[in-house]
Amino acid sequence: DQQVKQNSPSLSVQEGRISILNCDYTNSMFDYFLWYKKYPAEGPTFLISISSIKDKNEDGRFTVFLNKSAKHLSLHIVPSQPGDSAVYFCAASAYSSASKIIFGSGTRLSIRP
Amino acid sequence: EPEVTQTPSHQVTQMGQEVILRCVPISNHLYFYWYRQILGQKVEFLVSFYNNEISEKSEIFDDQFSVERPDGSNFTLKIRSTKLEDSAMYFCASSVSQGADGYTFGSGTRLTVV
């Protein structure tokens, strides 16, 4: 069951540059998308979300872009900082099943000095 | 900042034994969830709970699993007869309202079945 896919298991970016994490989904019923950040030995922490009625949402250094026709979303972090090194999960939910989040497999982001 | 607290942080149990994983959700939250992550795999939804009953559950959540809110503050996940494949990180979460937004996850309980 690959409803939410993150095809890059890892990404390394230089400090100060832009980090772009990508995510694809297959279920057209999804109408809400989220990004979570996870450090080792901690639970996922909500980062940013976007509703399907929008194509962009920005919060400080984090911007999420949604391309519904391509069933693709991306998370941009700029500028990248050392504390951004973590695993990032893309996730989605459907209005019809609003209590259930479907997660991607995660991308490990490493910010190098 | 309010937290979801999970205990224990690590539990080792023998195959066939019953385990209870405990969670204290954020006090004004009304919706409660369990997710799990098998090592190297995705975080997977198990169950959601509201108003003292299960509102949704996944195929993983079979008869071996049960949830309970025994005293108004704790939220527990019981696995009746553990199998090796139940070894995973179990995350509890809670939210004020239904919907993906607003979840707060706990730090998880690592369950190891031997």
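qc> Residues 58 and 64 of chain A are 6 Å apart (CA to CA).
qc> done
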